[in-house]
Design brief:
324 residues; globular; 19 strands; eight-stranded antiparallel beta sheet
Length: 324
């Protein structure tokens, strides 16, 4: 029998506009191969679901306006997005690509390098003729799927799969790692899955970043065999002339959400579902988040624009500490 390695296997790599991190405790003989597969998976999901490459399968499907074949991961992500649209009462709506482009977010912006400032004008891409969007979004998003042909019809409004594709990549990566390890985590820019009891057998300690810019976490969670996802305006925000914009677009207004929240963190069984609900709850705003999260049975923690922290009772089993 091959002995288990005593040192954890750790890897990080750039993907999907962020840095993905994988850590496997007490890795077995197949762990390195599994982590290689995880890195390759993230690359495939990014290539298929990115909106920053006009030749990607997603963007070709957006441009088609009718039935268009797409590869495995893009098809699965579009199916998941359609289900999430229904599950969240249409508040999760990926039909916000035109608004993001109009705000200047038509290329992958260097958020990790610091504040991003854009000129107060529409990008060249946003000045191109667009299919009607705002009038279309008063109706439910109802993409069509042909599983036999693996084809989709997503229109008439173009869609962005950024967040949910990242959450799904984490889900699929965890599935790959389970075959060779029982204690690991995979995290991609705030969307993570944490398996097993962690290095100290007390669950994985996950710090919730201060969305208002502080260096210390606002809370620490103990997560075991669960996902944790955060939607925040701390990183993906930028200046458009004298206006501050961020990537969490409210489909009801077509503009960045202004509901009084700075971040929402959700703990649950699935990374993609946690990512979807962290965004949907953010869009519900500070006045509604407690009642909605409680009604849905969601373990959630949020930080208001003024720094006040709230959490549902469902989060209590995972909450180690939070700032007063």
């Amino acid at each position: 029998m091959t002995a288990l390695l005593t040192e954890p296997l750790v890897r990080q790599f750039a993907t999907m506009g962020t840095t993905a991190r994988v850590r496997v405790e007490r890795p077995g003989p197949d762990a390195e191969r599994a982590v290689d597969a995880v890195q390759a998976l993230f690359g495939e999901v990014q290539a298929q679901c990115t909106r920053f490459d006009p030749a990607s399968p997603l963007m070709r499907a957006n441009a088609a306006g009718s039935w268009h074949p797409v590869p495995q991961w893009c098809y699965a992500a579009l199916e998941e997005a359609a289900a999430a649209h229904v599950r969240t009462g249409r508040l999760f709506d990926p039909r916000v690509l035109t608004e993001l482009v109009e705000l200047g977010y038509d290329t992958s912006l260097p958020f990790s390098a610091g504040p991003v400032s854009l000129p107060a004008r529409q990008s060249q891409q946003s000045r191109q003729p667009q299919r009607p969007v705002r009038s279309v979004r008063v109706l439910p998003w109802q993409p069509r799927f042909d599983a036999a042909a693996r084809a989709v019809a997503v229109g008439p409004a173009a869609v962005d799969l950024g967040g949910i594709a990242k959450g799904l990549a984490v889900r699929w990566a965890a599935d790959l790692l389970r075959a060779s390890a029982d204690t690991f985590f995979v995290d991609a820019g705030g969307d993570g899955y944490f398996a097993g009891a962690g290095p100290a057998d007390r669950g994985w300690s996950v710090g919730v970043e201060d969305p208002l810019g502080g260096t210390d976490p606002v809370a620490v969670l103990a997560v075991r065999d669960q996902a944790c996802a955060t939607s925040s305006t701390r990183l993906r925000r930028w200046q458009v002339g004298d206006r501050t914009a961020h990537h969490l677009i409210d489909p009801r207004t077509g503009g960045p959400s202004a509901g009084g929240l700075a971040s929402v963190t959700v703990v649950g069984s699935d990374p993609a579902a946690a990512e979807v609900w962290s965004k949907a709850l953010f869009l519900h705003g500070a006045d509604q988040i407690s009642s909605v999260a409680t009604a849905e049975g969601i373990a959630a923690l949020w930080v208001r624009d003024d720094g006040r922290i709230g959490a549902t009772d469902d989060l209590a089993p995972a909450l180690i500490w939070s700032r007063p």
